């Protein structure tokens, strides 16, 4: 398995977006780097171009049209021109030889400064041989650099698609622990699991015992697995003075098959109606927290 998507179509689309944002001088720099790489395949030149992108292209934000965004395997929300160039540049590496391909990418990781790491981790869904990057991703989750964690966690479909359960659970816990935008984690509902619910419930108890707030989005992952052990927490949220916590309790009850939770939600039929009409969602809770 090389690429998990049509890399030629995606590469052409990225090149189109880059072309729309470059001046004639910047476009010439890109064309010169590409010509040199295609003619000589000198790895040193490839790495220099990857590192030099901010200096020659700048860090202006890029705008992506709706049709372009729908055709890409990852979100370019918040991308700058240098970061966009870097993921397109990675597509220029021949991927037929897995060992050589992985070596080239790993060497980039080893020598990368912070912004380069952000580009590389953000590009995980674009890399060939996707199974080869599980350990690299797990190592990234252990990083203490906020922007690197955001590149892995937020709007990145790779972790949900390829991490095993233990690594995935570690990512979600770390997202809460480091106060990342949890609602931007791709595959959050699809990868919910009983062990993660247990871990997060324990984490919430530790926070409460220390007199610290518990992120309302945590209950999104506990909701499908509410049991006698966690129902007391849901009831407390239900009567919270904070809207986000009450809404989180209602959404958690709605996702639950635990009968007492269903009965609790039945006490507020108007809230159930809002949920069923799509007027109250976890996005609602996220916006209330972040506004």
Describe the structure in your own words.
By secondary structure, this protein is mostly helical. It has a domain at 192-290. It contains 18 helices and no strands. The chain has helices at 7-21, 24-40, 43-57, 66-71, 81-90, 98-111, 114-122, 134-141, 146-153, 158-162, 165-177, 194-209, 218-222, 228-238, 243-255, 259-266, 269-276, 282-290. 33% of the residues are buried. This is EboA domain-containing protein.
List the helices and strands and how they pair.
Elements (H helix, E strand, L loop, with lengths): L6 H15 L2 H17 L2 H15 L8 H6 L9 H10 L7 H14 L2 H9 L11 H8 L4 H8 L4 H5 L2 H13 L16 H16 L8 H5 L5 H11 L4 H13 L3 H8 L2 H8 L5 H9 L1
Task: Give a short overview.
This is EboA domain-containing protein. This protein has helices at residues 7-21, 24-40, 43-57, 66-71, 81-90, 98-111, 114-122, 134-141, 146-153, 158-162, 165-177, 194-209, 218-222, 228-238, 243-255, 259-266, 269-276, 282-290.
Total E-strand runs: 0
Which runs of at least 5 residues are low in confidence (pLDDT < 50)? Answer: none
General form: elongated
What class would the helix/strand composition place it in? mainly alpha
Gap from first CA to last CA:
43 Å
User: How large, in whole angstroms, is the Cα Rg?
Assistant: 22 Å
Instruction: Tell me the fraction of residues in β-strands, as a range.
Output: under 5%
Order of helices and strands: HHHHHHHHHHHHHHHHHH
Oligomer type: single chain
pLDDT averaged over residues:
96
Largest sheet: none
Helix content: 55-70%
Helical segment count: 18
Protein name: EboA domain-containing protein
């Amino acid at each position: 398995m090389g690429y998990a998507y049509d890399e030629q179509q995606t590469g052409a689309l990225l090149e189109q977006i880059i072309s729309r944002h470059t001046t004639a001088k910047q476009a010439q720099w890109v064309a010169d780097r590409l010509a040199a790489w295609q003619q000589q395949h000198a790895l040193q030149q490839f790495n220099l171009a990857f590192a030099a992108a901010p200096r020659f292209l700048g860090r202006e934000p890029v705008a992506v049209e709706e049709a372009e965004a729908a055709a890409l395997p990852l979100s370019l929300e918040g991308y700058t021109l240098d970061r966009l160039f870097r993921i397109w540049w990675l597509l220029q590496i021949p991927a037929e030889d897995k060992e050589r391909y992985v070596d080239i990418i790993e060497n980039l990781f080893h020598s990368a400064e912070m912004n380069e790491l952000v580009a590389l981790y953000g590009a995980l869904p674009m890399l060939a041989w996707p199974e080869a990057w599980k350990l690299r991703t797990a190592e990234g989750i252990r990083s203490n650099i906020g922007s690197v964690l955001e590149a892995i966690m937020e709007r990145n479909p790779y972790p949900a698609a390829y991490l095993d359960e233990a690594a995935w659970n570690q990512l979600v816990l770390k997202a809460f622990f480091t106060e990342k935008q949890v609602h931007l984690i791709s595959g959050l509902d699809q990868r919910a699991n009983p062990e993660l619910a247990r871990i997060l419930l324990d984490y919430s108890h530790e926070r409460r015992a220390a007199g610290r707030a518990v992120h309302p989005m945590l209950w999104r992952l506990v909701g499908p697995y509410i049991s006698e052990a966690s129902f007391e927490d849901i009831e407390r949220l239900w009567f919270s003075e904070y809207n986000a916590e009450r809404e989180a309790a209602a959404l958690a009850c709605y996702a639950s098959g635990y009968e007492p939770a269903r009965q609790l939600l039945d006490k507020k039929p108007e809230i159930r109606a809002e949920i069923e009409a799509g007027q109250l969602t976890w996005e609602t809770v996220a916006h209330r927290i972040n506004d």
